[in-house]
Structures are given as C-alpha cells and as structure tokens.
Amino acid sequence: MKNKEVAEIFRKVAALLEIKGDNPYRIRAYQRAAQNIEALTVDVEELAAQGKLERIPGIGKDLAQKIKEILETGTLQKYEELKREIPPELLKFLEIPGFGPKKAKIVYEKLGIKTIEELEKACLEHRLARLPGFGPKTEENILKGIKLLKQKRGRLPLGLVLPWAEELVSLLKKKSPVDRIDIAGSIRRRRETVKDIDILVTSKNPLKVMEIFVSLPMVEEVLLQGETKTSVRLKQGIQVDLRVVDPECYGAALAYFTGSKAHNIRIRELGVQRGLKINEYGIFKGQNRIGGREEEEVFAAVGLPWIPPELREDRGEIEAAQAGTLPRLVGYDEVLGDAHVHSKFSDGSASIEEIAAYARKLGLKWVGICDHSQGLKVAGGVPIEKIMEKKKAIEAFNKRSKDVKLLCGTEVDILADGKLDYPDEILKEFDLVIASIHSGFKQGEENLTQRIVAAMKNPFVHCIGHPTGRLLGEREPYPLDMERIISTAKETKTALEINAYYKRLDLNDIHARAAKEAGVKLLIGTDAHITDQMSYLHLGVAVARRGWCEKDDILNTLNYRQFKKYLKDIVSWKLKQKS
C-alpha cells in the first residue's frame, strides 16, 4: 500500500531536479524508479523487509536506501531540501499534464502566477502568448492540461484502485466476522476510472466489522461510522463506503450498488410495469418482500437473464437480454497469451526466460516479445543487426520449453510520414508485428489517421498498438477518424490492440465494441516493461467484456499454434491482395 506514496515522492524529486536543470540521467533514474514502483503488484514494504529492493528494475543501492528512508520517515531528506530551494507553487503547476518545468518556471517568474486558477485565467486572457517561447497553441495545450487535471482529481485509474479494494476485502475476510462480501460500484463494472470504492457485506456482528474496518492500516480518516454504513478515506486519498446489509436483500443491494444509475432506472421501470417495486432492500409486491437474496432474482423478477456487471451501462443490454441475444462475454480464463511485452532487447527489464517464467505463473501459454524498433532511441529500440540474435534466442527457448512459447515480435514505430521504422525485408522476419505511433501527436486528425491507415496497408503489419495514444489523466487521445481506422482494419484484416497497461486501456470499451461489430479482431497486450505489469492482462479482458466481445473476437484466446498460423495466414492474404 506504500507503493504510490514512494513513487509520488520520487516523481516530485524528478520534477524539482528538472526545474533546477539537473543531470538528465539522474532525473530519468527517479522517473523510471517511480514508474516501476507504482506498477509493482507486491508491496514495496515487503520487498524492503526481505532485502529485495534492488530486484526492482532501475533500483540500485542508492535508490534502495532512499526507499527505506521514505518507508521509515514518511519523506526523503533530498526531497525536503529541494522543496526549500524551489517555490512550492511550481510543484502544483507540474501536476498539469503537458506543462513542463521550464515553462512553469517562466510563468512563475515573469507573470508572478502562483495558482492553477490564476494560470487558467491568464491563458483565457491570452497573457501567456506574449512570453518568449509561448503562443496561442501553448495556451490551448495548458487549458487542456488543466481540464485533464480536474478530471484526474475526481477519478483514478481502475488499475490503481482495484488492488486497494481487493486488499481491503482480503483483510476484512481475514480479520472480521463477515459472511458474504463483494466489491460493488464502478469497480465491479470495470469502468476505466473510479471515483470511490463500494464494498457490501453481510454479518451477524456488524459493529465488530465496522470497528475492524476503521482500524485497518490503510485508513487515513473516518468520515462516518455507523452500524450499517461506514465511510473512510484511505491514505491514497480515495473514499471507501462499507455497507452491512440484511442477507435477505443482499442480491438486491449488490445489483443496486453496482449500478450504473441509468441501468438501475431501467430495471426499476420494468419492475413498475409488472407491479413491483425494486430497490436496494429487495423486490416488493405491495408491502411484501418477495425476493432479493440473490442478484439473479432481481433480473428474473423483470423477465431477464442475469446481466454481467460490465454490460450494465444502459447501452442496449436490457434490449439484448429481452431478445435473448446477450453476448457470451470472453472469459478472463479464456485468454491464453499476452501479445505485447518488452524484454531486455529494448527497454524492458526482464530476459525472455524471466518473461516466460512470469507467464507460467499467470497460467499463460504464450507471449509476444514485441520490443521497440530501431528509431525509438529513448526506448532502446532494437537495431537491425540485433534482430537475428533475438530471433535465434527465442527459437532456442521454444525448443527447450515444454509449455510456455514465445513469439518473436516487434512494436515498430509508425514514422511521421506514415512509413515504418523497419523495411519490409526486416519486418517479414518477425512472427508478430504491432505498429504504433510514438511521436508527432499534434499533426492533426487527417495526418494521424493517414499514418495508421498506411501502416495497416503494409502486408507485414498484424496489429495497430494503443491506437489512440491516450494516457488516463495525463494525455488525451490524439484526434483520429476512428470510423475510417476501423473500416480500414476490416478491409486489411489488421487487428487493433486493447493495450491493457492501466494508464492506457486503449482501445477503450466504446471503440472495442465498434471494432467487434465491424468484424475486426482485437488483440490484448499489456505493453509490460517489467514482468509485474503482465498481471494487468485482466484489465484488457475487462475492456473487451465492456465492449461486448466474445471469445472469437479476441485473438488471445487462440493457442500458440493457432495464433502463429493465423499471423502467417494474414501476411499471406495481404501479400496476395497487394499483388
């Protein structure tokens, strides 16, 4: 639970060093350490206690000692020194996505702006455009960043919040007298961002449950404590509402507190048509409660089959349930492989053997080792002369591995002119080619769309990676004609990626559903740079489920031999079309 706290301090140290104009390698070391600590699926405190901090990628003796200092004191001497040197207002500005330290410093020194509200007003009045190196576009981007920051303050990525919720549930099961317990709310629906955590329980001793809940180590503040509802704020800043409900209405309460609001209204309306009242306390005919112990009873009362939580958004699921056409959503256990993992051949921290070992631990059967291409120097892109070395290493591994298999892949960069970062004679050597945009985000909708369209028309490209380029709470999607992207994907039999990294989830659920309905195949990859990040695969499956996707829509449900054959067949088909 300390991971976010340690990562945040490291991230702020990096920002303050950048304002000072410090050594870029030192800045990058803190940034990388923050990213890797935040992405850990184990508690950094446990690693410290076991003396294993240096096993975290990017953590040497010096940073390991600094982590220990934060865990022991709650802060870092280096961080406190930097805060004394640099005005605290500048740190607030650095929370704005896309507003860099150098520009923040100029605004502070030249205009005396000290708050985000003053900054927003100055942009609207076009006062920043008069500064050297600024202009109307800069003001527009800062305003977009402020809007993103406000959204970020309200909601957090699912991938961050879900582990906290699961930890709370685990502790309550272990320490308190709960009988039934479930996470509800937008987490249960697997929305990409979450405002708070809702937990439902039944118990014969509600007061004891609440007493233990408020004393849990991650609780920062008790907002409300009662016998049936208690609200707290965690040290991570998010609110948690714990409700103890009567076992006789547990299913009705679970349905109600799972939501969404629009879905619940539709269920209540269907109930009214049948002379029923449906709420969190059960299903009522007049004054008599006639059901509600199980969630299925709520749906059955209005003539519907049980609807999976991921679909409960009032986007046609009621009508599909009535017509008997609800999709059989792809199962979390039906995904056999992770299509997009980076290794030590580029900027990943793990060897191919370590990646395979983690895949085995997750129960996966195959992994696509898709390292960056040569032009992406900042990410240690693989030069052409090292590709055959990687290919041979993967072939040798596959010969000796009886279970997990690897695909020799690449995440090839789509360049500014739409060309790819490797020539075709190199691309044809790979088992799997994912083409992605990593630069030139401000080119405009037509140019960005055309770059992706051109990449899909390449006969050796199997998939487009993180198609819209968004980072939740940090960077908005770049402008694309998604209708054209999806139609071209269908025409060229190119898959679109659901990037499962918790800050991306790109494609999102809306676009995933549009792709599915157009007959476009989807491929899920974690984009993992450390092995722990491979555990985010389930977040990509959640996006697919929210997008109404079934097993046949997702290429990851193929076994290794089927998937490899599919990839070869796509290249053959594309080459035939080209000729």
Automatic annotation (TrEMBL):
Protein's UniProt keywords contain Transcription regulation: no
Domain DNA-directed DNA polymerase X: 1-313
Domain Polymerase/histidinol phosphatase N-terminal residue range list: 337-416
Co-factor(s): Mg(2+)
Keyword DNA damage: yes
Catalytic activity as recorded in UniProt: DNA(n) + a 2'-deoxyribonucleoside 5'-triphosphate = DNA(n+1) + diphosphate; 2'-deoxyribonucleotide-(2'-deoxyribose 5'-phosphate)-2'-deoxyribonucleotide-DNA = a 3'-end 2'-deoxyribonucleotide-(2,3-dehydro-2,3-deoxyribose 5'-phosphate)-DNA + a 5'-end 5'-phospho-2'-deoxyribonucleoside-DNA + H(+); a 5'-end 2'-deoxyribose-2'-deoxyribonucleotide-DNA = (2E,4S)-4-hydroxypenten-2-al-5-phosphate + a 5'-end 5'-phospho-2'-deoxyribonucleoside-DNA + H(+)
Record SMART domains: HhH1, POLIIIAc, POLXc
GO MF annotation, one: DNA-directed DNA polymerase activity
Alphabetic keyword roster: DNA damage, DNA repair, DNA replication, DNA synthesis, DNA-directed DNA polymerase, Exonuclease, Hydrolase, Methylation, Nuclease, Nucleotidyltransferase, Sodium, Transferase, Ubl conjugation
GO annotation terms (biological process): DNA repair
A Gene Ontology cellular-component term: cytosol
EC numbers on record: 2.7.7.7, 4.2.99.18
Function description: Repair polymerase that plays a key role in base-excision repair. During this process, the damaged base is excised by specific DNA glycosylases, the DNA backbone is nicked at the abasic site by an apurinic/apyrimidic (AP) endonuclease, and POLB removes 5'-deoxyribose-phosphate from the preincised AP site acting as a 5'-deoxyribose-phosphate lyase (5'-dRP lyase); through its DNA polymerase activity, it adds one nucleotide to the 3' end of the arising single-nucleotide gap.
Matching PANTHER family: PHOSPHATASE YCDX-RELATED
NCBIfam families assigned to the protein according to its UniProt record, in alphabetical order: PRK08609.1 (NF006375)
Protein name, UniProt field: DNA polymerase beta
Source organism of the structure: Thermodesulfatator atlanticus
Primary gene name: polX
